[in-house]
Amino acid sequence: MATGKRQRIVVVGHGMVGHRFAQAAVERGLTETHDVLVIGEEPRAAYDRVALTSWFGAGSDALSLLPGGEYDDPRVRLVLDSVVTEVDRAARTVTVVSPPSAAEDLLANPGAVTVHEYDVLVLATGAAPFVPPVEGRGKDGCFVYRTIEDLEAIQAASATATSGVVIGGGLLGLEAANALVQLGLQTHVVEMAPRLMPVQLDDAAGVTLVRHVERLGVTVHTGVVTEEIVGGSSVSGLRMRQAGTEEGAPTGVVDAQVVVFSAGIRPRDALARECDLPVAPRGGVLVDEQCRTADPHVFAIGECAAPGGTMYGLVAPGYAMAEVVVDALLDGPGTFTGADMSTKLKLLGVDVASFGDAFATTDGALELTYADAVTGVYKKLVVSEDGTRLLGGILVGDASAYGILRPMVSSGLALPANPEQLILPVGSGAGVQIGMPDEAQVCSCNDVTKADILHAVSEQGCETVADVKQCTRAGSTCGSCVATVKNIIEDHFASVGKVVDKGLCEHFRLTRQELFDVVAVHGYRRFDDIVAAHGTGRGCDVCKPAIASILASQTSTHILEPATAELQDTNDKYLGNIQRNGTYSVVPRIPGGEITPDKLIVIGEVARDYGLYTKITGGQRIDLFGARMEQLPAIWRRLVDAGFESGHAYGKSLRTVKSCVGSTWCRFGVQDSVGLAIALELRYRGLRSPHKLKGGVSGCARECAEARGKDFGVIATEKGWNLYVGGNGGATPAHARLLAGDLDTATLVSYLDRFLMYYVRTADRLQRTSTWIEQLEGGLDRVREVVVDDSLGLGAELEAEMARHVGGYEDEWRATLEDPTKLERFVTFVNAPDTPDPSIAFTTERDQIQPIAPALIPVGAPA
Amino acid sequence: MSTVAVSLTPVCAVEAVPLEGGVAALVDGSAVAVFRTFDGSLFALSNVDPFSGASVLSRGIVGSRGDAPVVSSPMYKQAFDLRTGACLDDAAVRVASYGVTVVDGVVHVGSARPAGEVA
Questions:
Q1: Which end of chain A, N or C, is less packed with Cβ atoms under 10 Å?
Q2: What is the CATH number of the domain that holds A717?
Q3: Is the domain of A160 the same as that of A242?
Q4: Taking every annotated instance into account, which residue ranges of this chain make up the domain Rieske (chain B) (predicted)?
C-alpha cells in the first residue's frame, strides 16, 4: 500500500462528524496512504453545534473545532463555502460549486464548478431542521436553529422584537428557548405532546422541568398544536389549539415577532437519493455495520446515515461512525451496531439526564422514584424485575449521579442491596460507593471506557484530567463526564499508593500555587524562612527561581536585593540573556515597537561602539548580542541616559506587546492599536510571572499584529476591543480564544489585570497561559467566570494587586546603575577586574561579530 | 597524599563570595569558580562548564541535591557536586576541583586536585 498510488477520499460535509473523520484519519495514519478532501457548505470550519447556544456569549471562535481553519496534516485539504451538487458513482466523481472569489466575478460567473475524483466517498451531510407544513411558515421572522448563521439572523430580528415562540419542546427547542431568553425576549414554548422533552422524560419529570423553565420566565404550552403563523409579510403571532381537537375548535393567539421551528430534524440524504443509493423509509442513507452504503466506494456517517434503517440524532453515534469508517479503510474490524442514546445536559440552567430504558418498557421492570417539589428534583431508576440490575433512569434538577448510573446500565453491574440510596440526597445517609467495572463506558461522546482511562494513567503517563483529555478525548465534547474521569484518576493513584507529586522539586512538596499562597499568607520575604518552614535542603535551580518570581510578583522589590539576588537564574542575576559563549544580550524596551529616529540612532551607536551584533526580534525590538558581563553596566548607562529602560527579555515576565500600525496610519484600521499596545506594555512591564508573557494588539480584524498568537491578544472592532487569551507560538502553538468581546478600554484593562494576576497566582512553574487554561477545571469558561463574571468575588483583589505592581514599578537597570552594591557582581574575575574572559572570542560574518565556540576542555583534567 | 609543592593564590575577601553564590577568579591563568554554601563552607571548581565550554559555572545557582552541595550550570542546568566536581547528571563528566583555604579572612585557592580526592 505504501508504495502504491495514493487513494483519494472525498468527505462531503464539515460538521462535527466530518471533522471527526478527518481528525481520525490523521491520527490513525490513514493519511499516510490517502489524500483527504473535505468539502464544507458553511462559510466556517466545523464548530461545536452541541454548544450552539453559547455562541451568544462566547462568539464563533470559542465554538470552533478547528480554529486555524486548516488541518496541520497537509494531506487533508478543507474547502469551505462550497456545495457538492452531484455524485457520479459510475465515474467516481463529485461536482462542487464554490462561490466566486471576488464580487465583480459574480455577474460573469455565478460560481466556480470543479469536479473531483474519489476512490472513497464519505457522506457526512448531517441533518436539516424539520419545518412542519404550518400556514404562514414562510413569513419574515420565522427561523430554524441549526447554524451560526441562523443564530445571527435570530439575533438581528430580536433587536426589534419583544416576544418569541419556539415550536417544539424537545431538547433543541429548549436550547432555542434559552437563546430567546438571552436575547431578552418574552419567550413561549409550544409542544404538541403533553410534556416537555417527550422522547426522554416521563410525565412527572416533564412537570418538574416545566416548573424550572417557567421560573426563568418562559411560558410553556404543552398539548397544543400550531394552527397558523399570523401576520402580514412579517410574523405577528401564532395561533394554536388543543391537541386532539378538530379544526375549527377554539383557538388562542400568542403575540410573537420571532418564531423558531425546532420540531425535529431530518437526514440530509438528497445527494444519495439523486445517485440512487438506497435510503431508509424514514430518511437517512442506508448503511451496513461498517457504515458502507450499497456502493462499496461510498460511506455515510452521522445524522445523514441510517445504520440498519435507524437515524441517530446525537453527536456521539456520529463520532463512532466516523471512527468505524476510518477503521474500515485501514482494514480494521470496527463496526457500528447501535448507540447509547443516553443524554445529559444543562437546559436553561437545569440538569436533565435520561438513560437506558427510561420508560421501563422491559418486561417486569420496576421503577423507584424520588421527587422533591420544593427544590425541583426528580429522579427515577428503572430496575430489573429481580431488583439486581439497573436498566435506565431519568434525572431532573440534579444529575450528579449520572456519571455513576449510566455506566451501571451499560455494564450490567449488580445493584447494591438498597438501590434507592443511589438517588436519595447525599445528606440522608446515602453516598454508597459504586465500583465501576473497567469496561464501563465513561465518555459516551467519544466512546472512552474506564479501562481506556486507566490505561492512559498507568501506561501513558497521564496524571491530570487535562492529560487524559488529550490522550483519550474523554470529556472533550460535552464535558458531562469530567468529574467521573477525575475520580477515576484519583482513585487509581490512591489504589496504587502513589501520591501524585505536584511538588516543585526535591526541596518542596508544594505546588507553585501552594507556595504562592504560603508566601502571601505568611508574608515571607526570604528563601531561608520559606525552606525552613515548608521545605528541606538548600534549594536548587528549580525552586529558587520559582520563589524569586513569587517574591517579585508579591513585593515589587528589586530582584538583585541581597535577600533574593542569589535565587535568580543567571539571566535575571545579570539582567541579560546568557548566550552560548557566556556573553549576554542587551534588549532595551521599545513599547509597542514604536521608536523615534533619535533613539534608533542611539541603539546603533551603542552597538557600534561596543562591537555588538544586532538583530531585529520577533517582538518588534532590537537585540544586541555579544556583551561581556563586565560591559553590561556601561552599555546600559548609555541606553538609560538616552531614555531607554530594561526590556525584561531575560525574565519570566512580560516581554512585548506587539502592534500593527493601527488607525493612525492604516486605511483599514478602526482603533489606535499602537497607542493601546504601548499603554499595555508599560502597564504590565516587569510583572514576574510563571512563564514569559507576550501580548499583541491589532487595529482591525485583519490581525496584522498576530495578536491571537500571544498570551493575551486584543483585536479592534467597530465598537471597541475583543480580548483573546491563551495563545502562543513556539513548539506547541496555540491560538488565543475569545474571553470577551466589544469592550471599552477601561473594561479591557480591568479584565486583563484580573486575567494576568489570576494566572500569576495559580499557574504552575513554567506553565504558559494556554496550558494553564487547559488544566483549569472548566477551562476557558472557568477563566471567564472568574475574570468577567467575577464569580469568586476576586476581581477587586486581583485589580488591587495589579495596581500595586504598576505603582511599584521601577526600571531594574536604572536602579542597578544607581546602587554600587548591585554593580559589584558585574566583574568577571574578582581578583583581576581588568582582565577580560580569555575564553570569549569572536569572528566576523556578514560584517558582524559571531562567537567562536570555546574549545571544550578535556573532562576531568585541570584546565 | 599529594605532597607536591602547593601554591596558594589569594583571591578575595571571604565576604566577597556571596552566601549560596559564587565568584570567578584567575588562578595561574585558569578560570576558577569559588562558592560559599549556606553553612559558610568554601569550595572551588573549574569555572568552565564542560557541556558548553563557556566559563560560567560561578554564575550558577548554589543549592543541594540530597546531601551534596551543588551548583547547577547556568547554561544547561546540570548539577555539579561542589566537593568533587562530579557531574550528578552525567557520571562520565567531572570538572576539576581545587583546594580552598582562608588565611586572615582572605580566600586562597590551591592547585587542582586529582580526581577522587574529596575536599
A1: N
A2: 3.30.413.10
A3: yes
A4: 8-109
Q: What is the largest CA-CA distance in chain B?
A: 38
Check pLDDT > 70 for residue A66.
yes
Question: Does residue A235 lie in a domain region?
Answer: yes
Query: Is there a single domain that holds both residue A677 and residue A756?
Result: yes
The minimum CA-CA distance between B110 and chain A, rounded to whole Å, is 12
Partners of residue A863 in chain B, C-beta under 8 Å:
30-31, 46, 48, 96, 112
Lowest mean pLDDT segment, chosen from A149-158, A429-438, A772-781, B19-28: A429-438
CATH code, domain carrying A246? 3.50.50.60
Q: What is the mean pLDDT of residues A643-654?
A: 96
Claim to verify: residue A705 and residue A775 sit in the same structural domain:
yes
Q: State whether A22 and A103 are in the same domain.
A: yes
Q: What is the CATH number of the domain that holds A472?
A: 1.10.10.1100
Q: Which domain holds residue A496?
A: 436-500
Q: Looking at this predicted complex, what is its ipTM? A: 0.93
Do the domain assignments include residue A401? no
Cβ neighbors of B32 (< 8 A, separation 6 or more) are B11, B24, B25, B26, B44, B45, B46, B47, B98, B109
Whether residues A180 and A252 fall in one domain: yes
* Shared domain check, A197 and A78: no
Of residues B24, B79, B96, nearest to A863 (C-beta) = B96
Q: A506, B72: Cβ pair inside 8 Å? A: no
Task: List the single range of A143-152, A219-228, A330-339, A494-503 with lowest mean pLDDT.
Answer: A494-503
Topology of domain B9-112 in CATH is Rieske Iron-sulfur Protein (2.102.10)
Predicted confidence (pLDDT) at residue A857 exceeds the cutoff of 50: no
Residue A380 lies in a domain: no
Q: Cell numbers at residue B103, please?
A: 588565611
Mutate to test the interface with B, among A766, A829, A840 (most CBs of B within 10 A): A829
pLDDT bucket at A108, cuts 50 / 70 / 90? low
Q: How big is chain B, counted in residues?
A: 119
Least Cα separation, residue A820 to chain B (angstroms)? 14
- On whether both A441 and A519 belong to a single domain, the answer is no
**Between A833 and A612, the higher pLDDT residue:** A612
* Per-residue H/E/C for A346-368: EECCEEEEEEECCCCCCCCCEEE
Chain segment A792-811, per-residue pLDDT in tens: 888 999 999 999 999 999 99
Amino acid in the structure at residue A94: V
Chain-chain contact of B53 with A853 (C-beta, under 8 angstroms): yes
Query: Please, what is the Cα angle at A779 between A460 and A506, to 5 degrees?
Result: 50
What whole-number distance in Å separates Cα of residue A804 and Cα of residue A556?
8
Considering the domain architecture, whether residues A277 and A258 belong to the same structural domain is answered as no
φ, ψ for residue A197 (rounded to 5)? 45, 55
Q: What pLDDT was estimated at residue A860?
A: 39
Q: Going edge to edge, which strands form the sheet with A343-347?
A: A343-347, A350-356, A390-396, A377-383, A366-372
Q: CA angle, corner A466, sides to A502 and A543, nearest 5?
A: 25
Segments in A473-579 forming alpha helices (H): 482-495, 512-522, 527-534, 543-555, 570-573
Is A686 among the domain residues? yes
**Tens digit of each residue's pLDDT (9 = 90 or more) over A496-550:** 776 666 788 889 988 888 899 889 888 899 999 999 999 999 999 999 999 999 9
Collect all residues of chain B within an 8 Å Cβ-Cβ radius of residue A862: 30, 46, 96, 111-112
- pLDDT per position as a tens digit, B5-44: 568 899 999 999 999 999 999 998 899 999 999 999 999 9
> For position A430, what pLDDT does the model report?
32
> Does the reported pTM lie above 0.90?
no
Residues of B in contact with A546 (CB under 8 A): none
Q: Indicate the number of domains in chain A.
A: 5
